[in-house]
Amino acid sequence: MKTNFSGMKYLSTFFKLQITFMFIIGSSCLHVCADYLIYEEEPINYSDTRPNDPVVKIINEVNNGKLLLDTTNERSFVLSFLDRLNIPVSSQVLVFSRTSFQNNRIWPQTPRAIYYSENYYIGWVQGGDLEIIAIDPQLGPIFYRMSTPFTGGSEIKLKRDAQCMNCHGGSKTDGVPGMLVRSVYPNYFGQPILSAGTHLTDHSSLLNERWGGWFVTGENAGARHMGNAYFEEGESRDAVLLKDFGAPLQSLKDVFDVSRYLTDKSDIVALMVMEHQIMAHNAITKAHLNTRRWLNLDAAMAKHVGRLEGEISDAVLGYINHSAKDMVKIFLFSNEINLEDWGVEGGEDFQCDFASRSQTDRNGDSLRDFQLLSRLFKNRLSYMIHSSSFEYLHPVMKKAFYRKLWDALLGKDEDGIASNIKEKERERIVSVLLATKKDLPDYWNPSK
Fold first, then answer.
1. Among candidates 223, 203, 328, which has minimal Cα distance to 271?
2. 209: which DSSP letter?
3. What is residue 412's three-state secondary structure?
4. Of the ranges 146-150, 157-161, 312-316, which is most confident?
5. Which of 73, 111, 130, 360 is the most exposed place for a label (fewest CB within 10 A)?
6. What is the reported pLDDT for 11?
7. Which of 13-17, 72-76, 187-191, 322-326 has the lowest mean pLDDT?
8. Do 318 and 21 form a contact (C-beta atoms < 8 A)?
9. Residue 4 Cα distances to 9, 47, 307, 431, angstroms
């Protein structure tokens, strides 16, 4: 019997395309297809592709003697490494729940410190390896484990850690490599009491669900957050408060020995910004990788249906527009929790460091201006639109994103994505973008 291999290949491509679309769009399918890791297939090949981020280059420079880091002690080493990556010390947030692969070194007296910028997230465990997440423009977050001169050996060793993908590459991150902020009920040893439940938190989360297993300095009005406390398991398998270090806390000096850390803070505003930034990073990664995947499969199908090279099918354009809309919702804080009558107050150091990277219009407005009363930012469009991750967003997706964003800011979208943003704020957002973004389509600027 003669087999039509061309037809079989077409059906295989068609099947993969349908599975991919179901996986990305259909939330119910996420559970069914949790093991279907699309980022390990063509054209992404996540694990087999060499990353294009500066971390490997930096470590090679250190080992070759071209770059000197301070090896006086572990603290000095981390400080000099952060300085090389241009990560502010004020971004420090501290987590004492055992939710890292270095669990045996973490508990309330030796929390894991996390420092971050738009391009990096650095986890420092006392006496352990450094955990590094570097954002690659084409692959998204790359997860590294880095030994130091204080963990054995004369050379600094850096390796991609596949173990991280158990939590950072499945259904919890929407089927693409991503980050997450987890809130748990920790016991005295920092071990999560899983029977009491957990929360994945972002800017839509209620404050009383956030930061279980984290230390939090600063103040918030209204509901008490879950931070600064540990628990024990009750008779009904719920969590019973065992120790409350208090909220608000202005310093952690009376909680544990902070002299080994870079600051005595785990700032509430830094935590909230990190939650949003991770949400935005994940949205960019998902939109970018999915677009690459869809277009690759669509091009393979085009050969079998006689479509012109470079022409995108209506179905794929529909999926891209749907994904762009989801991304716009996140960037416009559409589902941000209302902090009205709550408000938060953090330390000046982080806020000053964060604002120092502002890109402003002629009126001095930027997307990094804090509000901290009813919401996190004064102008509710994510500053991540200025990040290198967004800069390298796939051009087809970026084109769809800009159109959706423009329509939302003008109130022309059917979903009312920006309905929570009043006219003056919309005008400020447009003004900042016109002054700071060089890749806006012509329709954004009426003078063109």
1. 203
2. G
3. coil
4. 312-316
5. 73
6. 44
7. 13-17
8. no
9. 9, 33, 21, 58
- The residue assigned the tokens 């994940």 is 282
Mean pLDDT of the chain: 89
First to last CA, the chain: 64
Residues 6+ apart with CB under 8 A from 209: 183, 199, 201, 226
CA 330 to chain centre: 12
**Residue 231 pLDDT exceeds 90:** yes
C-alpha span between 416 and 413 (Å, rounded): 6
Phi, psi of 311 (to 5 degrees): -80, 130
Measure the CA–CA gap between 95 and 184, rounded to whole angstroms: 11
The pLDDT score that the predictor gives to residue 36 is 54
Is 181:274 a contact under the CB 8 Å cutoff?
yes
Nearest to 269 by CA among 366, 182, 345, 200: 345
- Give the E-state strand segments of 130-192 in sequence order: 130-136, 140-146, 158-160, 182-183
Q: What number is the average pLDDT over the span 29-33?
A: 36
**DSSP code, position 7:** H
Tokens, residue 68 = 């000197």
Token pair recorded at residue 38: 């699309």
pLDDT in tens, 202-229: 999 999 999 999 999 999 988 899 999 9
Distance of CA 101 to the CA centre of its chain: 19
H and E: helices and strands count for the chain: 11, 13
Quick one: how far is CA 203 from the chain centroid? 11
Mention every residue, 6+ apart, whose C-beta is less than 8 A from residue 257: 109
CA-angle at 178, arms to 419 and 101, nearest 5°: 135
Report the C-alpha gap between 131 and 142 in whole angstroms: 11
As a whole number of angstroms, the distance between CA 196 and CA 231 comes to 10
Average of per-residue pLDDT across 281-288: 97
Q: Which residue in 233, 173, 243, 235 sits closest to 197, CA to CA?
A: 233
